[in-house]
Specification:
- There is one protein chain.
- By secondary structure, the protein is mainly α.
- The protein has 13 helices and no strands.
- The relative contact order is 0.06.
Length: 340
């Protein structure tokens, strides 16, 4: 009963016009059915979060207002807070699903040459194209096996094989997959020797994969160099700058006190109004931004796409921040005598 309530409640927040598109998008991430129950639960989660933000933050400010003003401000603030919380959560889920779709697409592309080679072997053994597709499905092909299984089921229920293959190609944003399907469709429609086309296709796919691996190996030195700069050199420089700032401020305080103690001095000296803590906050922010964008650059060099290396972002960010504090402690221990 509760599950049914959440599911129906979630459907109320998903317009009918976007349900087909939402279903196709979720299918790319491996979610076969639209989780309306999740949307219903999400509404109550955002309502609870809004309550804990409204009661301590807004209610004490508006509780002395007139009754009508109080209800209007409560409605407006509650609405905008809950919408903002829901948008943040949905964007986080959207980001996660995009990563899942990307990972599934890459796995599918990696499995494609081996699967097509098996299809070619079946064709050379005397099978027709539809049966060769079905027989080549093996559990080790994972996502690709599931997708080709759906293609085979559509063909078995009366759909044209070229239309089923095109629907499969359109499901994923993979130029490699789309080019392969286009070649197969052209050969099926022309009635040519499909096995020869598949053999050349498999050879090209494997050659492309080998070239990408060579490119990654050739740029490995640059990636290691960038990683060393981001994780070690940059935090050390910011930590050194912080210690030099503290030393200069310490010398400034001494000079200021010495000038003030000399009554006949013709000069005056004031200390710079700089807080080392503010510089530390600036350093952490700068290190975070540099680490994030550097990890994106390394991801683009290695994978050819930012999404493929998002796992580097937390590693680089946490590593650079930790090294910044380690260098700060070490340099403070080494240079602390200069402040005495």
């Amino acid at each position: 009963m509760r599950i049914f309530f959440f599911e129906e409640f979630g459907k109320a927040f998903v317009p009918r016009q976007i349900r087909p598109g939402l279903g196709k998008y979720l299918a790319k991430a491996g979610i076969d059915n639209v989780p309306y129950k999740f949307f219903g639960i999400l509404f109550w989660i955002t309502a609870i979060i809004t309550y804990f933000m409204y009661v301590p933050g807004i209610y004490p400010v508006i509780k002395q207002k007139a009754m009508i003003v109080f209800f209007i401000l409560t409605f407006v603030s509650w609405f905008f807070i809950q919408v903002l919380v829901a948008v943040i959560i949905v964007l986080g889920i959207y980001f996660y699903l995009n990563i899942q779709i990307y990972q599934r697409t890459k796995i599918l592309e990696d499995m494609l040459p081996d699967y097509m080679a098996l299809v070619s072997t079946n064709l050379k053994g005397g099978m027709n194209f539809e049966k060769a597709l079905w027989t080549a499905i093996k559990p080790e092909f994972g996502i690709l096996a599931k997708e080709v299984g759906l293609v085979s089921k559509r063909v078995a229920t009366g759909n044209d094989v070229t239309e089923a293959l095109q629907e499969f190609a359109d499901k994923y944003n993979s130029p490699r997959l789309k080019r392969s399907i286009d070649l197969l469709k052209g050969e099926i429609l022309s009635g040519g020797a499909i096995s020869k086309v598949i053999d050349s296709l498999v050879a090209n796919l494997k050659k492309t994969k080998a070239l990408k691996q060579e490119m990654v190996a050739a740029t490995l030195t640059y990636m290691i160099f960038m990683a060393a700069i981001v994780v070690f050199i940059m935090p050390a420089l910011f930590a050194l700058a912080k210690q030099l700032l503290q030393i200069l401020l310490g010398f400034g305080e001494r000079l200021s006190s010495s000038f003030q103690s000399g009554a006949t001095s013709m000069f005056s000296f004031s200390v710079a109004n700089i807080d080392p803590f503010h510089f530390q906050l600036f350093s952490i922010g700068a290190i975070s931004i540099i680490a994030i964008f550097s990890s994106m650059i390394i991801s683009t060099i290695e994978k050819g796409d930012i999404k493929g290396g998002l796992k580097y972002i937390p590693l680089f960010w946490v590593g650079s921040i930790v090294m910044y504090f380690i260098f700060s402690v070490v340099l403070e221990a080494m240079m602390g005598g200069l402040l005495i």
